[in-house]
Design brief:
3 domains; five-stranded parallel beta sheet; FAD/NAD(P)-binding domain; binds flavin-adenine dinucleotide; iron; globular; 16 strands; oxidoreductase; DPD_II; Helical_ferredxn; 477 residues; metal ion binding; single chain; binds iron/sulfur cluster
Length: 477
C-alpha cells in the first residue's frame, strides 16, 4: 500500500552505492561509484520521511518532485518514478552524478538535519534514469505536430541542450551550433570521466539528434558564421555559450613553459578518452605522466585537475590554495576523494613566482586568514619571510573563468552585458536586451552548475514558446 515502504530512516542507515577502492580507481577514468543494486535502491529510497514541506525539493534548482519519485522507487514502480523524474529534469542521470548534492537537495534533507544521514537523493535519481535507459523507456522525441518556426541555439552545453529538448518536443525546428566537434559543452570536454562517463552524455546527444534537433558542429559563431546571419535564419536565437576566459597568474615566470590552463589540460585528457588524436598530449605538454604536478586553485576545476593528474601517472600531485580547507569553494566530498587518491593539499599558500623555463619550481608564499572583507569572508594575507620553493615540472592554473566579451567578439549592437561581462538577461525567461534573443547558463550567471544551466534552458524555452505564440499566426503542420 502507498507509503508503507517509507520512513525507514530510523532502522536503515544511509548507504551510498559502493565506492571503488582508491588504489584501483586512481588508475582509470571510470566513475568511482557503482550503481545501486535494485533492492538497495528501494531500501535507500524508503528512508525518506515524505515531508509535507520537502526542503530537498525547494533547494533543488529544478524543484524536482523528489519525495514522490522516492516513494515510487521504494514501491518498485520504477517506470512511473522515471516518468515523474524526467518531467522536471532534462538530464536526471547526469544531475544525479554531478550535482553538488551536499549544497542542494541532500544538504537540506530533514533527516540529515535530524542526524540520521541524508536520503541519497542523487544516487537514487541516477539509478532511476540509468534503469530507464537500460529498459528502453527513454524514447526519442516525437513532436505531435511540426511547426514552421525555428530557433537557433548557440552552444551545445546543458543550457542549450535543455532548451533544444523542450522546443523540439513542442514541434519547433531547432538548430544547435557549437564550435566543438561534439555536443555536450563542459559535460563532454570539461568534466572528467571519473565523475561523468562520456557515453552517458553522448547517448543524450544522440537522443536529441534522433528526435530531429539539427547539430551544426565545428562552427564557431563570430568566425565561421556571424551572429547576424544566425539571427537572419531563425525566429528566435538562444545564446548558451558558457564562460571560457581563464583567470591568469601573475608574477615572475608566469609565462614559462610547463604552466598550463586547467581547461586545456582537462579537454586534452577528455579527448584522449574519446580516442582522439591530441598532439599536445602526446608531446607531453598536456600530460602529467611522471611529473611533479602543482595545481593552483581551490574550486571544483582544481579538484578535477589533481585527480586527472593522479590518473595520468604523475609522480606527485599537490594542490595550492590560498585559504584553508573550511574556506575553499570546492566540494568537501571531492577533496576527500582526491586525498584518498593520493593528492596532497597545501592550504594557505599562493604562488609568488616561478623559476625555470620550462618551469622547475614554484615560489610559494605562506598565507594567513586576516580581517573579513565586506562579504564577511576572511582575506588571505601574506606571511612575510616564509616563502619556500616547491619543485614542479607542470603547473596547472585553475583560478576560475570569466565571460568573453560577446558583443565585441560578435559585433552585436544592443546586446547589454553586466559589469562582470555576463550577458544581461531576465533570470526566469532568459530574455535579453534584444527582442527575440535569449541567453542562459554560465554566460548569464558566470561559472555555475549544470543543474542551473538546465533550469535556465528549460525556462527560456518556455519564454520562447510564449513569445512566438504571441506573434502573428504561423502555419502548423
Ligand atoms: P557550457 O557547458 O560551457 O557549454 C557552452 C558551449 O558553447 C560549449 O560547447 C562551447 O563550445 C560553445 N560555444 C562557446 N562559444 C561559442 C561560439 N562562439 N560559437 C559556437 N559555440 C560556442 N557543474 C556541476 O554541476 N557539477 C560538476 O561537477 C561540475 N564540474 C565542473 C568541472 C569543470 C572542470 C568545469 C570547467 C565546470 C564544471 N561544472 C560543474 C560547471 C558546469 O560544467 C557548467 O556550469 C555548465 O556546463 C554550464 O553550462 P552552459 O550550457 O552554460 O555552458
Ligand atoms: Fe538534487 Fe541535483 Fe537532482 Fe535536484 S537535480 S534532486 S539538486 S541531484
Ligand atoms: Fe524525504 Fe529528505 Fe526530502 Fe524530506 S527532505 S521529503 S526526508 S528526501
Amino acid at each position: 500500500m502507498s507509503g508503507q515502504q517509507m520512513l525507514k530512516f530510523v532502522s536503515i542507515e544511509r548507504a551510498m552505492p559502493e565506492k571503488r577502492d582508491a588504489n584501483v580507481r586512481r588508475h582509470d577514468f571510470h566513475e568511482i561509484y557503482a550503481e545501486y543494486a535494485h533492492e538497495k535502491a528501494r531500501e535507500q529510497a524508503g528512508r525518506c520521511s515524505q515531508c509535507g514541506v520537502p526542503y530537498c525539493q525547494s533547494h533543488c534548482p529544478l524543484h524536482n518532485n523528489i519525495p514522490d519519485w522516492l516513494m515510487l522507487t521504494a514501491e518498485g514502480r520504477l517506470r512511473e518514478a522515471y516518468e515523474l523524474s524526467q518531467a522536471t529534469n532534462t538530464f536526471p542521470e547526469i544531475c544525479g552524478r554531478i550535482c553538488p548534492q551536499d549544497r542542494l537537495c541532500e544538504g537540506n534533507c530533514v533527516i540529515e538535519q535530524a542526524g540520521h544521514g541524508t536520503v541519497t537523493i542523487g544516487a537514487v535519481e541516477k539509478y532511476i534514469t540509468d534503469t530507464a535507459w537500460e529498459e528502453g523507456w527513454v524514447e526519442p522525441i516525437a513532436p505531435a505536430v511540426e511547426r514552421d518556426e525555428s530557433v537557433g541555439i548557440i552552444g551545445a552545453g546543458p543550457g542549450g541542450l535543455a532548451a533544444a529538448d523542450v522546443l523540439r518536443r513542442a514541434g519547433l525546428q531547432v538548430t544547435v551550433y557549437d564550435r566543438y566537434d561534439r555536443a555536450g559543452g563542459l559535460m563532454t570536454y570539461g568534466i572528467p570521466g571519473f565523475k561523468l562517463e562520456k557515453p552517458v552524455v553522448m547517448r543524450r546527444n544522440e537522443q536529441l539528434e534522433a528526435g530531429g534537433v539539427e547539430f551544426v558542429l565545428d562552427c564557431n559563431v563570430g568566425e565561421d558564421i556571424s551572429f547576424d546571419a544566425i539571427r537572419g535564419r531563425h525566429d528566435a536565437v538562444l545564446i548558451a555559450t558558457g564562460v571560457y576566459k581563464s583567470r591568469e597568474l601573475t608574477g615572475p615566470g608566469a609565462g614559462s613553459q610547463g604552466i598550463v590552463r586547467a581547461l586545456d589540460y582537462l579537454t586534452a585528457s577528455n579527448r584522449k578518452s574519446f580516442g582522439d588524436d591530441v598532439p599536445e598530449f602526446d608531446s607531453g605538454e598536456l600530460n602529467a605522466e611522471g611529473k611533479r604536478v602543482v595545481v593552483i586553485g581551490g574550486g571544483d576545476t582544481a579538484m578535477d585537475c589533481v585527480r586527472t593528474a593522479v590518473r595520468q601517472g604523475a609522480k606527485s600531485v599537490k594542490c595550492l590554495y590560498r585559504r584553508d580547507r573550511a574556506n575553499m569553494p570546492g566540494s568537501q566530498r571531492e577533496v576527500a576523494n582526491a586525498e584518498e587518491e593520493g593528492v596532497e593539499f597545501v592550504w594557505l599558500s599562493a604562488p609568488k613566482g616561478f623559476v625555470g623555463d620550462p618551469v622547475e619550481e614554484v615560489v610559494v608564499q605562506r598565507m594567513l586568514l586576516g580581517t573579513p572583507d565586506a562579504t564577511g569572508r576572511q582575506t588571505p594575507e601574506v606571511i612575510e619571510g616564509a616563502d619556500y620553493a616547491e619543485p614542479a615540472d607542470m603547473v596547472i592554473k585553475a583560478l576560475g573563468f570569466e565571460p568573453e566579451e560577446l558583443p565585441k567578439l560578435w559585433g552585436v549592437d544592443g546586446l547589454e552585458v553586466t559589469r562582470w561581462g555576463t550577458v544581461k538577461a531576465e533570470f526566469t525567461t532568459g530574455r535579453t536586451s534584444i527582442p527575440g534573443v535569449y541567453a542562459v547558463g554560465d554566460i548569464v550567471r558566470g561559472a555555475s552548475l549544470v543543474v542551473w544551466a538546465i533550469r535556465d534552458g528549460r525556462d527560456a524555452a518556455q519564454a520562447i514558446l510564449e513569445d512566438l505564440a504571441a506573434q502573428p499566426a504561423v502555419a502548423a503542420e
